[in-house]
Amino acid sequence: MAYYNRFKVLLADYVDKPTIPTVVALLTCGTCLVPRGMQSAGWIFCGIGYRMLTDIGCHLDVQTVTIDNSNYRSSAIDLELRKRVYWGAYVGDMLQSLFLGRSPTMPEVHGTVSREYLDSYEELEEWKPYLDPAIEPLDIHVSSYQPRPSYALSTFQSLLGLCDIMGRVIRAFYSTTSAETSEETLLEQRDKVREQLLRWKAGLPEWLQFEPGVDVTPPPHQITPQ
Q1: How far apart are CA 166 and CA 216, in angstroms?
Q2: Which residue numbers delimit the Xylanolytic transcriptional activator regulatory domain (predicted)?
């Protein structure tokens, strides 16, 4: 945990100077802490990251930002960077909130950021598993995995749609008011969520559809949203 201890020491110098790198550091650290059994610390660090995102205006689809009381027009790269960090934080917030049974900090109505990306290079970038040349394969008779397009952007955009449904699940079944909701209303909400999930699955692009035992196993980042 030496890295984590060093992170906490350095954070004091950056917590009052919101920047994209600091946001990414907070979200990365917080996300890594949760599966290590440090849910409280992970939740708090991610929460600081979400609020820092809002503080620097990443939840708004704006062309001009203010730095040190001066206005600057953002470049296309800056806009794309802010957009990706924002939606990455949104996904992390929904997954973590559902896992911990807590209300999300960033509901889908929180910002006005577009979900369309300007840079689509990684969509068709070739993906293949990394094979360590120093390690002998377990079975030399198993055919090697055929490289295929990563479809990274369409996978992530599909994950965004799934996270929208997660938010509705949390509000309907894990909010502070759900205990007072009638059984009839909860059953109606369950049916609505089921319909939304079916529509989401039916709306997946053809290249993201996967039938176990029939289709070739896709990359792990494509299996996760399904």
Answers
A1: 28
A2: 42-124
pLDDT of 113 higher than 80: yes
Six-digit token pair at 72?
Answer: 């600057």
Q: Which amino acid, one-letter code, is at 222?
A: Q
Cβ contacts of 170 within 8 Å, gap of 6 or more: 94, 97, 98, 101, 102, 103, 104
pLDDT at 64: 62
Report the C-alpha gap between 141 and 112 in whole angstroms. 52
Token pair of 176 as six digits: 């502070």
Beta strand pairing call for 64-67 and 70-73: antiparallel
